[in-house]
Structures are given as structure tokens and as C-alpha cells.
Amino acid sequence: MTNTLSRRDFLKLGGAAGAALAVGQILPAPVAQAAKEAGHLNADGDGYISSMCEMCVWRCGLIAKIKDGRVVKLDGNPEHPHSRGNLCPRGQSGLMNTYDPDRVLTPLIRVGKRGEGLFRKASWDEALDLVASKMKEIKDKYGPEAMVFSSTHNLSQVQFENLLYAYGSPNYGTQRSLCFNAMITAFLLTYGVEEPARNYENAEYILMIGRNMMEAISTSETGELSRALDRGAKLVYLDPRYTKTASKATEWIPIRPGTDSAFLLAMINVITQNKLADCEFVEKYVQGCDELPTAMQRYTPAWAEQITGVPAATIERIAREYAAAKHNAMAHPGWRTSNFINSFQTERAIATLNALSGTVMSPGGCLSTEVAAEGAGLGAPPQPPYPRVSALRLDGAPWMYPLVPLKLGVFQHLRDSIVSGEPYQAHGWFISRQNPVASLPDRNKTLQAFEKMDFIVTVDIVMNDTAWFSDVILPEASYLERYDPLLPVGGKAFLRQPVIEPQGEAKSALWIYKQLGERLGLGDFFQYADEEDYLRQQLAPLGVTLEEVKAKGYAEMPEEEHSGSEFTFNTPSGKIEVYSETLKNAGFSPWPTWEEPPMPAEGEFYLLTGKVAQHTQFGTQNNQLLHKYSDEPRLWMNAKTAAARGLQDADWVLVTSPVGKAHVQLLATEAIRPDCVYMTPGYGHISKGLTTAFGVGASDSVLHVTYTDPISGGQALSQTFVTVQKA
Amino acid sequence: MTDTIQHKAYLFDATRCIDCRACMVACSVENNIPMDKTRIWVAGVGVTGEFPTLQRSTMVAHCMHCVHPDCMSACPVGAYSKAADGPVSYNPDLCIGCRYCMNACAFGVPHFDYDKGIVDGAFIDKCTFCPQRIYNGDEPACVATCPTDALEYGEREELLKKAHERIAAHPGKYIDHVYGEFEKGGTSYLVLSHVPFRDLGLPEMDEHPINETTEAIMEGTIPFAVAWAGVLTAVAGVSRVISKQKENASPEKPHTEAKE
Ligand code: SF4
Ligand code: SF4
Ligand code: SF4
């Protein structure tokens, strides 16, 4: 297969959207008034403004270049630890998100049937009054728990949460259970920390379990991994697909999907049976160190070979190499670890391997559990305590899922409870910066949940699929047009500030939530006059003025205290809990353990999804620049498997799962296991308000079956099996 | 063979490039490139081999900014120029649309815009070396954003030194050759690779500048080319139709209608 993007591919957007304008023709980009006042520009109207990217959650520092009073380019901020002067393709394309011709620029109120796409323009007052009155009506009639709130990780989320807690609803859906529940739950239980920090400086042996770092880019971390490889670090990479990370790995292991934990347990077996870990050191910090060899005895490499398809000798060798690298070995915790219902066990095994290598207990080790809490050290507006909530959560945490961290929740279960009406019926849905119609598994079911709703309101910058089915759309200012709360990273609090005036009537999330809060009689929870006042209150303890921060882009934070050479862990025993009483008490295995995942039947394939470097989840496919430079979203199938079924590259095929069907074009390639097919997530948009993305590719969510891991609450995204026929 | 003058250059290391295309998006924004055009693209054979023994061979391609540019010597009206410090630039106001440069460039860089036709002027486009950035102390846009330092910018001599040091420091990792050091008398886009250069889409060529001969031949072509300009207008119209038809028949054409 040649999977390259030749010059002739570039006619695609010209064909798709009719017009083929240059970026400069699309972007009026007048610089923000605030930026002018802050003295960022010289007399000619040229200058630089530093802010933060929001094309993904890594939030690189950026510098907007202003020429003649217009924003012409975004570059990485060399002073920001997440960008170090670079931006990924999504970050580079940010101006195009802001100047998407499909931006929603006034509040809209639905006039046609849901999903018909007929809306009328409204003033902010009318739209906000309508939303507030509907929310009050629902609260009065059914109680605050009948209102569901959902939003995906963003800097204004703290005020979104403020709104929902002040309103008094326990029902909050985030992307987390569709992404990292397995990783975070496992690391909380084992180390008492959500996500350990990675340090590649001394890394010599890196194990990545499906962490496609070269395509699921976090600019600085991707760069660090690349530089580690440049200086000779080894990367062992497990993935059923030959991704771009696989192509850079020292060793690529195309393991059978769902069996990563068997591979890792066998590694632990080899290390413990052969006493390859520095036991004296490990014993001091690890709960269960003495019994671990017995608990892992049955997971021999020979046993794992049967399950994973990886030769026992390979597993044994990798285990020995990993142990030999000691605290310069890292088993990467991963990120989107929602793969199988046993993914929690995979993460527990990863956590255990990092304990055995001693890396978390060693200064300069590859993983660190000393992670500062988000927002620590900054001020916040005063507010009264939240009302008490007594209703059960519709997502089943903790009454069905006792170990799921309340902050993470189980979004797919929340959706299912809306459909079933159990234990009570929800009636309203407030969605901000999220596209659940596209992101939750089983799209048909999500649309059924929408049908149950009396009222749906969506806050977004474009007419995404969820907005398309909403009753009211509130247009948010894009990340280049607004302020957000400060973000501390590496000893500095970074600022997102407007570089461009908001277009049309678009407003910041901070403004929208406050307006709604006031209309709902919750004004005491929003004690800030405007965005700048909010920031000033945040900066108060630092003794820095907002003006200084606007000019510099960040404020210095006071030095964090270091706990010294003694490592303590925020777990019940104060040690690393490879053995966990908490798990045992909840009725689960206290040790990392093997749980057999389901397998596809004869004629079926594992349906895999995974990132490409040009897109973030479901929100960037309409960006013309990213559309221009990404490959067409096709269904990957092993070339020999395809040939055996009479299928050819570029054939249209019908993919069928237990819950849905999708038509998509085939990519016959050697770069995938014969028992798998793969599709890029985030395509197949159904909103006709997304003129670039509409109808391009197929939706993985249409096909995904809902399966929830009972321990972490994670959705098992690779556990859907499909058949593929010629269309 | 190489110039002794202070010459700017790029170093591209295929072992570092993750094909993320940040460089391409950056170029589009920096240089206001229309959505259906590009100055910088992915070249190479892609993934080869049989599962599970595979290899990926791609590179980021743009103008090589040759030390002795063939486009320039082929151009009958002097629309191309070579700056002493590196950039090969193109002046659309002088171009008559003869497309000699397209044929002359061994790397397929000058790109004819059939949609605009000859009379509309600017129909060749190629990488400019971002003069608006490099003469203001910045790196070219593509280089500046690369998250893995697969693209670097600097003095040609220094980059060559760096490239040879990298080869020496990692025995067995690289092909022991810096593409562009001598090819065609030297280019300003230098390439390091772990796979044969032809798999990255780079032509194998001898190490003398071809234009020592083409320069001589082209001397007498100006009147000829001007005479042909009128004919070419008609030809361009025809080729546009052909290229459109090819595009429609192409299996790689994106499908914009929902089939779901
Ligand atoms: S990784 Fe890319 S999208 Fe994410 S914040 Fe950085 S530049 Fe933006
Ligand atoms: S930005 Fe760097 S890593 Fe990404 S495609 Fe360009 S050269 Fe390769
Ligand atoms: S040097 Fe400038 S014009 Fe040339 S490819 Fe790079 S960004 Fe584009």
C-alpha cells in the first residue's frame, strides 16, 4: 500500500466545497481590541500575542503573529512546556477553526422538527430567557436531577460544573468514560494519583501499550519520545495495527486485541519468579511485594503465548530487558484506554510493572506521582455552598459502579438510563462543548435518548451533530476570541486571551454560564463582573496584575514544596497497592488479574479505532485545513484477507455490527492484523451544518456496541465485532 | 562541487519524521495557499513489506532550492532567480506559462495551475523558502513547527556536518549518505534516511549539475518559447479537461455524498 499524500490529492477540497480560497481570503482576522489596549502591537499594527491552543486538551502555548492589525499566523510558544515552540497540525490550523464558514454566530432557536435543521436567529436575551425558563420548569416539575449536564474537558469547565452543582443536579456526563477511566481508576487505586507525569530524559526502555504517541500527538511529549529514540532509547510497542508509532518503534508487537494484560502479567511473572526486581527497594514501597510471585505464578510466558499469539521467548526476553533497565524503564500508562472490559486489568499490570522497575520511587525516574492539583495556588471568586443532592446518579456511580471515581462517571450508562427511564426519567439536557451524538457508542440509542428530552440546549462554535438535534444553540466565542480561567503548568499560570474580536454575537463560556446562573436565581455562585475580573480574582494570591500577565502570557507561581527523598503514596496503606484491599472489599480481584475478553466469531472482525495526527475526536473534521491534509477515512483491512474475500482496495463495503451499519470505502493494507479492521473515529457527521465534514467517511459510533467495565466504568471501544461485505 | 558561500539550507531526517503534516498546515497558513493547492507534500512509497514485517518510507517534499537550479536555467524569460544565500524564487509577473521549468525540475516541484490558464498570470507555485520569515530572524514556517525536529534549518555547511555526525553516531541506522550534498551539484534540502532514497521518492542522479548542459541548450529558446505561448493556451485548456476526467475516474477521489 502507498499511504502517502501526493500533490494530486489536493484537489479534494476544491471538489468538496466548491470554493478553493486561500486561508488569507477566508480569514478577516482583525486583532482583538483587548490586545491592542494591552500594548501588544506597534504603531504599524504589528506584534505578537501569546495565548493557548485548544485544538486538543494538551493546550500548547501559542504566539499569534499580528500584521497590519490582522492575525496572520499561530506559532508555538518556546516558553510553554507543552509546545516548546512547536504546534501540531491541529494547532497550526487553529485560525481555520475560528474562521470556519460554518460558525454559528448568533443564538439559534429551533423552528422545525428535531433533526430537520430549521432554526431562527434570536437575541441573547431571548435565548437565555428561554433556556432559564425551561430549566426552571424542569426543576419545578421533576426536581433538579431531571436535568442532565454534559461537557468535555476544557478550561471553563470549572464554571460549567459550578452551574450544574448550584442548580443541584447529580447528572453530569463527561468524555472520561469513553476515554481514560481504565487508566485513571487503576492509577488512583494503585498509586493514589490520577495520571503520573512522564519523564523521558533518562528513559532507556519504553513500553507502550497501544499509546500511539506519534499520531495521538501531545506536542511536547511526542517530541520527547522522538528525542529519546534519537539518542538510542528502545521502544517496544504493542498494537494490532502498524501505526506511525509502530514504524518508529524498536520492536512492534502486533498483539491480539484484548490480550495486552496477558502479555503484561507474563512479564510480571518473569520478573518476580526470577527475582529480577530490586526487591529490597521495592519491598519498602510496594504493598503485596512478598505474595506477588505466588499471585503471578500461573501467568507464565507459555500461557500468555496461547492467548496473545506472541512467542513465549519474546515475552521472556522483553521482561528481562525491561527489568535490566531498572528505573530507566517505563511502562507508559496510556491515555484512551477504553478498549475492552479488561482494560482496567491492563492498567493495573502497567502500574505494577512501573512499581517493579522502581521508576516511580527514583529521583529522575520515568514516572512521577508528584502531580499538582489543577488550579492549586490560584484564587477563585467567593460562593455559597452547593445545595445537597439526594437523588441517585443516572450513570450508576457509585450505586452500580462502586469503584468508579465520581469525577469520572459512566457517560454511556447515563445515556442508557435516559432511554430506559430508570431509576427516574430525565427531561432536559444541557450540553457544552461536546458532541455526544457523535461520541457515545451506539448513535441510534443516543438519538433515542434525545427523543426522551423535553428540552436540549447546546453551547458550541459550530453546528455539530448534537447542536443539529438541539432546541437552542448558544454560540460560544472560539479559543482565539475569548478569555478562559488560568492554567498552571510547570510552575507558571498560563493565560488564554483573545487575539481576535469575537465574530458575530459569540460570547465566552464564562459569560454564558454567569448569565444563565443569574437568570436561574443562582447569581451568588457567579461573583465575577466579567472575564477580566474573574482572572484578577484568580491572580490575587500571586500578587501579579492581569496587565503583566497579558503582556507576558503567564504568571510565575510560587515554588512547589517537594516531599524530599521519602516517597509516600495517597493510598489506604500509604504504599503502592499492587495488592488492593479496596478492590477486594468491592468484590474484585485484589491482584492484577487475567479476565478473558470476548472474541469475534468466524467471519467477524475486531473493529478498531484510533487517532490520526490531524484530528481531535469529533470536533475538527470540519476544519478545511485539516481536511486538506488528512488521508481519506477508509476502512483498513489486511490486504490478504480482503483478497481472500474478493474485496479490492477502494471498494465500497458495508460494515455491520450488532447495533448499526455503515458504508465506507476499503483500504487494503498490510498494516493491520488479518482479524481486525480499523476506522478513523470522528467521521460520518450527520449535521448538514458542517459543510466540509458532512457525509465524509462513516461514523464509528454508529457501529459501537455499549459495553461497560464494571470496575472502572470505561466503555470497551474495541469490543465490537463486525462483518464486512461488498456494498 | 558545493558552494563555498554562506548558503541556507534545510535538513530533513526521515527517521524522525512522523508524517504528522504540521509543516504542511503551517505552510498553507503562512503563505496563504489556496485550499486545493500545496507547496509541500508527502512523498515516498509509504508502507511496504508483508504483515508483520513492514517498513514505512515517507518524506516531506518541497522545493530543493538547488545550488544550480534547473528551473532557472530552463526558464526562457528569467522568471526564476537564485539568491546568493539559498532561496530559489519565482516571479509570476514574468512567467509566460511555457512550463519548461516543470519539465526541467528533476523533483517535480514547479506546479502548473491548469485552472487559471496562461493569461491569468501566476500559475506556477512553489516553496519560496519563506523569505518573509528567514529575513526576520525566524525559521521557515514548516521547520519552525516540526514537533520532532525532523526538519531543521541553518547554514548548509553546518547542517551537512550535523548530518554526517548523526550518521557516524548511529551505525546501521542511516544510509551512509546525505542526499543533496552532491546530487545535481548540491541542493539546499538535505535528506537523511534509513531507507533507499528512491523509496522516499528522490530520483537517483549523478552528482554533476545537469544544467551545465541545459543552460547551454536553453540559451537559444526564448523566441521559440514566446511563439509557442499562444499554442500553449489552447493546450492548457485541453489538458485541464483531461486532468479533470482523470480526477473523476480516480479511485482516490473523495466521496462527498453520504452513503450511510
Ligand atoms: S497538541 Fe496540538 S492541538 Fe493539542 S494543544 Fe498542542 S498544538 Fe494544540
Ligand atoms: S512537521 Fe515534522 S514530523 Fe510532522 S510531517 Fe512535517 S517534517 Fe514530519
Ligand atoms: S519554506 Fe515556507 S514556503 Fe517553503 S515549504 Fe516551508 S513553509 Fe512552505
Description of the structure:
- The complex is a heterodimer of chains A (about 725) and B (about 260).
- Chain A has about 725 residues and is an alpha/beta fold.
- In chain A, helix 6 crosses helix 21 (about 510-520), helix 8 (about 180-190) crosses helix 16 (about 345-355) and helix 11 runs antiparallel to helix 14 (about 300-310).
- Chain A has 27 helices and 27 strands.
- Chain A has 4 domains: about 5-100, Single Sheet (N-terminal domain of TfIIb); about 110-180 and about 380-480 and about 500-555, Rossmann fold; about 190-370, Dimethylsulfoxide Reductase, domain 2; about 605-725, Barwin-like endoglucanases (Beta Barrel), CATH 2.40.40.20.
- In chain A, strands 5-4-17-16-15-6-7 form a 7-stranded mixed sheet, with helices on both faces.
- The model of chain A is unreliable at about 10-20 (pLDDT under 50).
- Chain B has a 3-stranded mixed sheet.
- Chain B has helices spanning about 20-30, 70-75, 100-105, 130-135, 140-145, 155-170, 210-220, 220-250; strands at about 10-15, 40-50, 55-60, 80, 90, 110, 125, 150-155, 190.
- Chain B has 8 helices and 9 strands.
- Chain B has one domain (about 10-215): 2-Layer Sandwich (Alpha-Beta Plaits), CATH 3.30.70.20.
- Chain B is an alpha+beta fold.
- Chain B is about 30% helix and about 15% strand.
- Chains A and B meet through helix 1, helix 2, strand 3, helix 4 and helix 9 of A and helix 1, strand 2, strand 3 and helix 5 of B.
- Bound molecules: iron/sulfur cluster (SF4) (3 copies).
- One iron/sulfur cluster binds next to helix 1 and helix 5 of chain B.
- The site of one iron/sulfur cluster (SF4) has 14 residues of chain A, from helix 4.
